[in-house]
Amino acid sequence: MLRARSRFLLGAALAGVPLLLALLGPWLAGAEGPRGVSFTAGGGHWLGTDFVGRDVRRQVLLGGRSVVAVSVAATALAYAVALPLGLAAALTRRAWLEEALMRPLDVLLAVPSLLLLLLVAAVYRPGTAGLAVLVALVNVPDAARIVRARAAEAAARPAVEALRAQGETWWRMAVGYVARSMVRTLAADAGVRLTGALYLVATAAFLGVGVEADAADWAVMVDRNRTGLSVQPWAVVVPALLVVALTVGVNLLCDAGTSTARKGERR
Questions:
Q1: Tens of each residue's pLDDT in the chain, 267 residues
Q2: 232 and 226 in contact (C-beta within 8 Å)?
Q3: DSSP code of 29?
Q4: What gap in Å lies between CA 105 and CA 137, rounded to an integer?
Q5: pTM of the entire structure?
């Protein structure tokens, strides 16, 4: 097992490259040059050309922002909905309200995430913003259940009963005490949640949901260029490795952060 520091450094190195490319890539890509022959190497193209003769290096520099932005936005939106739902369900003393808040989420939880994306995409074509909302929607039920379980444990502590006896507001109890006690749990879950969002966004893009068929997107590049994998592999290998590096790196960073926090609590 790697130590927390080693996991942090390895995670930062793995996630840093795709994140920097997603952030700075569009400014480094430059103007589009003349297209060449499909699936060729050389000819001034460092990573060769793609299925329509575009420069793969330029497509890689342009293709990260959509994947990263949609995944981060979907994760943040999922927590923005799940946190108040989970906290309200955990802190309420009315059983009917808790049931009303949590039971509808079980319906969404029973539907496979990818199937829900495909069903919605069959009705209308979501854009980038629509894809972020859909990915957030399928992550809300599981995130809300985790928030509720952790918040219920914190809400049963004597400190919360003391706050109630003092007449403190719901906001003070929920945010001032319960939410603060959940930071380490949420940090660990955020890594898993972001990884799941990356998987769904990349899979949706691979299937043509939420993006154009020839868009500069790492997942789209893997899909559209796989026919030339044996001839010009860089058009598939490079974007696929960037998605894998981002996923593994984020998980290592979150794992290292929670391990450090756990050691701090023991001290």
A1: 567 778 888 989 999 999 999 999 889 888 887 888 888 887 778 888 888 889 999 999 998 888 888 888 999 999 999 988 888 888 777 787 878 888 888 888 877 887 887 787 777 777 778 888 888 988 999 899 888 888 888 777 777 777 777 777 666 777 667 777 787 778 778 878 888 888 888 788 777 777 776 678 888 888 888 888 888 899 999 999 998 898 888 888 877 766 655 554 444
A2: no
A3: S
A4: 10
A5: 0.78
Q: Which two tokens stand for residue 38?
A: 């499909």
Tokens representing 51? 């299925």
Distances (CA, A) of 36 to 39, 99, 214: 9, 60, 16
Q: Is residue 253 a contact partner of residue 191, using CB atoms and an 8 Å limit?
A: yes
Listed in sequence order, the residues at least 6 apart from 144 whose beta carbon sits closer than 8 Å to its beta carbon are 81, 82, 85, 86, 89, 102, 105
Q: What is the 3-state secondary structure (H, E, C) of 70-88?
A: HHHHHHHHHHHHHHHHHHH
Rounded alpha-carbon distances, angstroms, from residue 194 to 74, 115, 248: 8, 19, 11
- Alpha-carbon distance of 185 to 21, in angstroms, equals 29
